[in-house]
Design a protein that fits this description.
The complex is a heterodimer of chains A (310) and B (374). With 310 residues, chain A is mainly α. Chain A has one domain (3-309): ABC transporter involved in vitamin B12 uptake, BtuC (Orthogonal Bundle). Chain A has helices at residues 3-32, 40-58, 61-85, 90-109, 135-139, 144-162, 164-174, 176-181, 186-212, 224-234, 239-262, 268-287, 291-295. The longest helix of chain A has 30 residues, at 3-32. Chain A is globular. Chain B is of the alpha/beta class and 374 residues long. Chain B has two domains: 40-145, Rossmann fold, CATH 3.40.50.2300; 148-268 and 299-367, 3-Layer(aba) Sandwich (Rossmann fold). Chain B has helices at 2-31, 58-72, 88-99, 113-122, 148-161, 176-192, 209-221, 235-242, 271-282, 311-325, 353-357, and strands at residues 43-48, 76-81, 102-107, 127-131, 140-145, 166-171, 197-202, 226-229, 246-251, 262-268, 290-293, 299-301, 336-337, 343-345, 366-367. Chain B has a seven-stranded mixed sheet, sandwiched between helices. In chain B, strands 2-1-3-4-5-11 form a six-stranded parallel sheet, with helices on both faces. A two-stranded antiparallel sheet of chain B has the order 13-14. Chain B is globular. Classes of the chains: A mainly alpha (310), B alpha/beta (374). Chain A binds chain B through residues 4-5, 8, 12, 16, 19, 106, 109-110, 113-114, 116, 122, 208, 212-215, 217-220, 222, 224, 253-254, 257-258, 260-261, 263, 267-269, 272, and chain B through 51-52, 54-57, 60, 83, 199, 201-205, 207-215, 217-219, 221-222, 232-235, 238, 242, 252, 256-257, 259, 368-369, 371.
């Protein structure tokens, strides 16, 4: 076994991890502001079909990406309205969003089945960087959407930890009453968190239909939205850790197929279980002895905020 | 409490009504002379699909068949439910269809098998048609196309077109149906190219385009220069096109999904069979057979990719197709060796249909393993 084997797995881990990364970053922002959105799968599907439809119609990939984000954001707005303004149960509206997103995407997509995409995001090696040994092959010979995700991770990190607005996000997720007391508009922050989250979920869906597997098929996210939600917990609400987690989760599948080819006697089912086992372990770890707060779990996650209740 | 009482009353009323209808129906039946078979008599046919009719693959093809049936036979009313997982949901859906008057039920997933056997016992007046299984009942038949025929032909094509004799195959679940296709594909490749091997990767999903693509790429990275697959999406062919190699399509003519890679596809065509079954139910000739239709009716080889396959290769494959259709060549006839090199089917022996349907071993030339059965 040579280094090419490992390089191929790492490269595959990044492409497979990118949709997870986008969706997880979005969910992370929403959860940081205190709103749990279980509709990621639905928003991804709606983004996937919107991006595909727009690109088929206009032959412009970036218009496709924009409409995917718009569609994901629109669906997220519904969740924001119901859970923040109407104070509906976040778990229930999130689940409803997934069911709705699955249905509406297959309704919109009926005419797109078997339609080929005129253009796709193809691998564009970055000058100089792609020439680097190993790192160049693994990280810098992908499509533009992968590079965009590289930029997004530090951006979200800087936003959350080093900007005033980002700190407001964290504050609202931690203690909305205190945030309100210092003059932060709790509902506005939460709306923004949820809608940006939805836009990123839409982008994650577009990555599937415009880059990874350029075709529209019903339910083609195949559970990635749920993995993204698990990933946020796995990453303990930290964007940098989410990036590593996404590549780890993405790499498991790539590793599984290659192990089969080598004939190693490891059941692929064990490998497929790994991300979830990791997530459960992390969940146990962070909830044990109140470590959750220290590690970044937003204290007010899933809770409504209303001034009158104080 | 009051709620339950109301429900009970309704239930009793329903049962009484039902009993009345049955009695009246029986009496009118008795009063009438036995009619000659009315070929346009209304008949309700239920289809239970495991996937979405928008999958562009397996379920899509069955739904095309359903539409063909509704168009071709007057008086046929079809109903369908998609995305029905095997289990309690399947049982519920079928019972609802029977309540709505369905007298023929088609179930299009291997996983429905045992539930269908139970349902067939509970509803002796309904005809059950189960795809790809190996269990039957007095009112339950199985059906499938001879998948091995066009699979064998695409295997030949792969064997003739490969340059390094290393072919890859992306397979969903290790079940007899898929194994049969893989074995036939390999036999076809090795008939024309004894040096060829077929490396299989199991994805353990019917449908997940991103995963299917990843499985294909892992095979390409391992050095194969030709791909076959049994997945529901054309992602394998797209991966092949991306890396500049050739691939075979599955389920329908998928040339347009990867025009520079797709050499040919295995395509389903269920319509004529569905018409045949419903006609036989109407005229009373239905039997609980294990239907295994040969090419070209339920399944066939779709057209070759435009400008990709040399004329001589096309002619060779099409000549074999004609031989198979004319029953001058049977894919699963001896000699066939298993992976260990042991002769499983001796020369001149035709494999029994039941054995073909329950196939759980790999032929010589396949690289890969099957999970141990417990």
């Amino acid at each position: 076994m040579d280094s090419a084997f490992y390089i191929a797995i790492l490269t595959a881990a990044i492409t497979a991890g990118t949709p997870l990364l986008y969706a997880a970053l979005g969910e992370l922002l929403a959860e940081r502001s205190g709103v749990l959105n279980l509709g990621v799968e639905g928003m991804m599907l709606v983004g996937a079909v919107a991006g595909f439809l727009t690109t088929v119609a206009t032959a412009n990939l970036w218009l496709g990406v924009a409409s995917a984000m718009l569609a994901g954001g629109a669906l997220a707005f519904v969740h924001a309205f119901l859970s923040i303004t109407m104070r509906a149960n976040q778990v229930v509206t999130g689940l409803a969003l997934t069911i709705f997103g699955t249905g509406i995407s297959s309704l919109i997509g009926r005419r797109l089945i078997g339609v080929p995409l005129p253009i796709t995001f193809s691998d564009t090696p970055l000058p100089f960087l792609s020439e680097l040994p190993i790192i160049g092959t693994v990280f810098f010979r992908h499509d533009p959407l992968v590079y965009l995700s590289y930029l997004l991770v530090p951006l979200v990190w800087v936003f959350l930890y080093w900007t005033r607005v980002g700190q407001n996000f964290v504050a609202v997720g931690e203690d909305p009453a205190a945030a309100d007391a210092v003059g932060i508009n709790v509902n506005l922050v939460r709306y923004i968190g949820v809608i940006i989250g939805g836009m990123l979920a839409g982008l994650a869906g577009a990555y599937l239909t415009l880059a990874l597997a350029p075709v529209w098929l019903d339910g083609m996210t195949a559970g990635r939205g749920w993995i993204a939600i698990a990933l946020v917990i796995f990453a303990t609400w930290n964007p940098i850790r989410a990036m590593f987690g996404a590549y780890l989760f993405g790499g498991v599948a790539a590793l599984g197929f290659r192990i089969q080819i080598l004939g190693w006697p490891i059941s692929p089912f064990y490998l497929q279980m790994m991300p979830y086992i990791f997530t459960i372990l992390v969940l146990i770890f962070v909830t044990y002895q109140g470590r959750a707060r220290k590690l970044g779990a937003p204290a007010a996650l899933g809770l409504h905020y209303d001034r009158e209740d104080r | 409490m009051k709620e339950t009482k109301g429900l009970n009353l309704k239930l009793v009323a329903l049962v009484v009504m039902f009993a009345l209808v049955v009695v009246v129906a029986a009496m009118t039946r008795l009063a009438q002379q036995p009619d000659p078979v009315d070929v346009t008599a209304p008949i309700k046919v239920g289809f239970v699909f495991v996937g979405s009719i928008g999958d562009a693959g397996w379920t899509f093809a069955h739904d095309q068949g359903r539409q063909f049936l509704a168009r071709e036979l007057p008086g046929v009313e079809t109903m369908f439910v998609e995305r029905v997982p095997p289990g309690a949901d399947f049982v519920r859906v079928v019972r609802e269809m029977i309540q709505q008057g369905a007298t023929v039920i088609f179930g299009t997933s291997f996983g429905y098998m045992d539930f269908m056997v139970d349902l067939a016992q509970q509803h002796p007046d309904v005809k059950f048609m189960h795809v790809s299984g190996f269990k039957v009942a007095p009112n339950m038949a199985t059906y499938h196309g001879r998948l091995e025929d066009p699979k064998f032909l695409t295997g030949m094509l792969a064997g003739l077109m490969t340059k390094n004799n290393r072919i890859g195959y992306v397979a969903p679940h290790p079940i007899p149906l898929v194994i049969r296709g893989l074995n036939a594909f390999t036999l076809g490749a090795r008939l024309v190219n004894p040096e060829a091997t077929v490396q299989v990767v199991w994805t353990n999903v019917w449908f997940d385009p991103a995963k299917e693509r990843e499985a294909a790429l892992s095979l390409i990275d391992a050095g194969v220069d030709m791909l076959g697959h049994h997945q529901d999406s054309p992602a394998v062919q797209q991966a092949a096109q991306e890396r500049g190699i050739y691939a075979m399509g599955m389920n329908s003519d998928t040339r347009h999904m990867a025009p520079r890679a797709t050499l040919a596809s295995v395509a389903w065509n269920w319509g004529p069979f569905y018409v045949d079954v419903v006609r036989s139910v109407r005229d009373g000739t239905w039997t609980n057979a294990q239907h295994m239709w040969p090419m070209p009716d339920i399944i066939d080889l779709a057209p070759f990719g435009d400008g990709l396959v040399p004329q001589t290769v096309q002619e060779r494959v099409l000549a074999k197709r004609q031989q198979i259709i004319d029953d001058k060549y049977l894919v699963f006839s001896g000699p066939i060796k298993d992976q260990a090199g042991t002769v499983v089917i001796p020369p001149g022996v035709r494999m029994e249909t039941a054995d073909v349907l329950a196939m759980y071993w790999l032929v010589e030339g396949v690289i890969g393993t099957l999970p141990v059965r417990r």
